[in-house]
Amino acid sequence: MKEFTENVVADVQGLATKRVNENVSEKEQVVNKKVKCCLCGKEIEDWQTNNPFPISANGRCCSDCNSKIVIPLRLRLMRFDTKKED
Question: Is residue 39 a contact partner of residue 57, using CB atoms and an 8 Å limit?
């Protein structure tokens, strides 16, 4: 029984190590990918992008545009929707 348990533990550790290594290489691929902000055109790394909806349904936006344009519009739209319900 002890040998069986040791083998199971070794298999699980091996699988976990393999999965971590796969994730690291996937992350490296994403980190190196550059895209342009669909709102201002600034070049940014793919992992630093945001969803620009409702300004645009396509592309990704940078953090500056997200905080200065997208989020304020979303908040205004939410306020507008809550006023309609009253």
Answer: no
